[in-house]
Amino acid sequence: MYITAMVGEWFVTLTALAAIAALVAAVPVFLEMVREGRRRHRGLKTGEIERYREDVTYDATPPSIEEVPPGSAVCPHCGSVNDVGYAYCGSCVQEL
Ligand SMILES: [Zn+2]
Fold first, then answer.
1. Can you tell me the distance from the alpha carbon of 1 to that of 85, in angstroms, rounded to the nearest whole number?
2. pLDDT for 46-94, tens place per residue?
3. What is the pLDDT of residues 5-52, one digit of tens each?
4. Whole-angstrom distance between the N-terminal and C-terminal Cα of the chain?
5. Ligand 1 geometric centre to CA of 9 (Å)
6. Helix (H) or strand (E) segment spanning residue 44
């Protein structure tokens, strides 16, 4: 009984020490995260870093009926083009 209690105490102590060691080891990583955040903040303020912008070349509109190959079905739910003979959309799995 006494020995199991001692082993349990040691286990808890060693686990706590390992957790503390892991936190101490992670301190440089946390500091670098803070530094990177400040650098980005400063860069955005001065204009060195550009903000994310929408890709103007990407066309999100579904293809018009004229562009759809004959026999294929355009999904009424998501607008993607499906091949002949399918009852459900291959993109959004809704009924065609
Ligand atoms: Zn669909």
1. 73
2. 988 888 777 777 777 776 666 677 778 889 999 888 888 889 999 999 9
3. 888 899 999 999 999 999 999 999 999 999 999 999 999 889 888 887
4. 70
5. 59
6. helix 2-46
Q: How far is the CA of 80 from the centre of ligand 1 (A)?
A: 6
Distance 57 CA to ligand 1 centre (A): 23
- Measured from the Cβ of residue 65, the count of other Cβ atoms closer than 10 Å reads 7
Tokens of 86: 């399918």
- Compute, in angstroms, the gap from residue 75 CA to the centroid of ligand 1: 5
* Token digits of residue 50: 């550009």
In angstroms, how far is CA 39 from the centroid of its own chain?
A: 23
d(CA 63, ligand 1 centre) in Å: 13
Query: Rounded to 5 degrees, what are φ and ψ at 29?
Result: -65, -45
Which residues, in sequence order, are CB contacts of 69 under 8 Å at separation 6+? Answer: 81
Residues 83 and 96 sit within 8 Å (Cβ to Cβ): no
